[in-house]
Design brief:
Chain lengths: ~325, ~325
């Protein structure tokens, strides 16, 4: 691994973010990344965070049009309420703060405690839980579904609404609507290696893959012999669309994220995207916008995930709105 | 690997690019990616290309402010003169075309042949060879130094000049100046696996690294026991700065690319960037702009490279100019 020590991997990365992105206010000690002008616009603050190892999520999404702040925990470990409380106080401009929380037990408890403490300080706080992963109902780290790729859609669209000056209730309602409209399914072609352990977190033999894997290498639905990119796309698309169909009749176009887990070459990921797009088209689903890349990762895991989000005109408009962060940037 | 077949990996990826980027004109059959408005502005055309497996280089850099077209070869194999000739003809708006060629024997010969054929067709063509890698003088695939991360600086800055309407001679002179001002050094922490071979292209045991590696896994300067991120940064920075010093006295600030080889997590890469920035600072070198990410990759190789480019005000201005491509995007 390209590290100094397992103990410094997160603080080293934050020092690197500070050096590379002078437009961000990186508090290395507290492990909080803030946009410099978070309070300037009198906007609703948007705070997220989670265990490290999923970069660019979340710190790479801090900036105009997306998050106001991100709290970084240790690798695959929730940040603590103190960080969230500090972030909320630092970004609150009197319009309240929305916590975007991936549905993992540690994150849920810590963000809840932070929300209670912030409210005692007189802040208005709303929370949205992201639980878009259809693969499993419960998991090693979760009561209920896991939050994965849908987080990117929630943070982008809620961030655009906040940037426009929408009030807290509306930003929160939009975030929940995006989560309710999003479904994800992931596949691992290799395990990931955490700095602390130094060896793969689970055993996935060459020539096998894990369908429905999470973003910490936690088990998925089933293990199979290696499949082609086309077969994987068909399984993933079927899983997300079948689940989405249960929530209501198909309606309109979708936002699509074809996400790499970290170690999958972009050459392969674009080839996979071709198959995902074809599988969606075969089922009559129109892709309004597509994003292909490594956005919600699992350290050095090889693999991919598919996230779709049903998008009406309002969500499309907010998706297209300008964003300027380390990892997502357009329109400004 | 996330593929259908080794035989279709490049065409599958190009189909995926076409699906994800409607703003690009992707010729899947010819394996050429063009910007849609390449001829509209009456600008100099900028054409590059090379073996696949280094994505987002080069197709991810096609668009306003950067390349007019990119030709994709098979994995780690030069594209052929027919592709380059087609690209040149498709982007030429009467102002001539610049070929940006990484210094590998196959690319050099094929771009040279294409230039001769294009000139027979009445096009004006200039070529610039990129040979920024200080690690080795000759290599398995090279007479002279290899072209690696410096290619990104050449394509961005020459592309900005072309976008502004600079004539061919000036765009070519700028491209050569950027190459002459750039130095790179790469390190492999693991080998890469090509689709055709299906197993690592060279043997790099756990706990060892290869200093001065190329972007095809070709051998570097030496193999060593694993080093810390800080130690690797010091070796890489010393290598590029010592070589740069031979070319003249240090002058002004630098552009810095801290590049991942494909499978290095962004968490680790940002930590490495902190050490590179510190090592440059310790030697009195000011970093004017920094870019951190996976830009010039080697499939699923774990590792990193450091590229610095001495930049005067003109190069800085062109670096900052708007760019809108799949992989680099700012200012528009």
């Amino acid at each position: 691994m390209l590290i100094n020590s397992p103990d410094t991997v997160v603080s080293d990365a934050l020092r690197g973010m500070a050096a590379a992105h002078p437009e961000l206010d990186v508090d290395v000690e507290r492990q909080v990344v803030l946009r410099r002008d978070a309070r300037a616009g009198g906007r609703v603050g948007l705070v997220s965070g989670g265990g490290s190892g999923h970069e660019p999520l979340h710190a790479g999404f801090v900036g105009p049009g997306m998050l106001s702040a991100a709290c970084a925990g240790a690798v695959f470990t929730s940040p603590v309420p103190d960080q969230m409380l500090h972030a909320a106080g630092a970004v609150d401009a009197g319009q309240g703060v929305l916590f975007v929380v991936k549905n993992y037990t540690g994150d849920v408890l810590n963000f809840q405690m932070a929300a209670e403490l912030a409210e005692e300080d007189g802040l208005r706080v709303e929370r949205v839980l992201v639980d878009d992963d259809v693969a499993v109902t419960d998991s090693l780290y979760t009561a209920g579904r896991r939050g994965t790729g849908g987080t990117l859609f929630v943070e982008k669209i809620a961030g655009a609404a906040a940037e426009e000056g929408a009030p807290l209730e509306r930003v929160a309602a939009l975030a929940r609507r995006v989560n309710d409209s999003s479904r994800s399914f992931g596949v691992a072609l290799s395990a990931c290696t955490t700095p602390a352990k130094g060896s793969p977190t689970f055993d996935l033999p060459d020539g096998e893959l894990e369908l429905g894997v999470g973003i910490h290498g936690e088990p998925g639905r089933e293990r199979r012999a290696m499949m082609s990119s086309r077969e994987i796309a068909e399984v993933a698309v079927a899983a997300v669309l079948d689940d989405l169909a249960e929530a209501g009749p198909p309606a309109g176009p979708v936002l699509l994220l074809v996400n790499g887990m970290g170690a999958t070459p972009l050459l392969e990921l674009y080839g996979f995207h071709a198959e995902v797009a074809a599988a969606l088209s075969a089922r009559g689903v129109e892709v309004a916008r597509a994003l292909v890349g490594n956005y919600v990762t699992s350290l050095d895991m090889a693999g991919c995930s598919v996230t779709v989000c049903r998008a009406d005109e309002e969500l499309l408009r907010l998706w297209d709105a300008p964003v300027r962060t380390a990892a997502l940037r357009w329109g400004c």
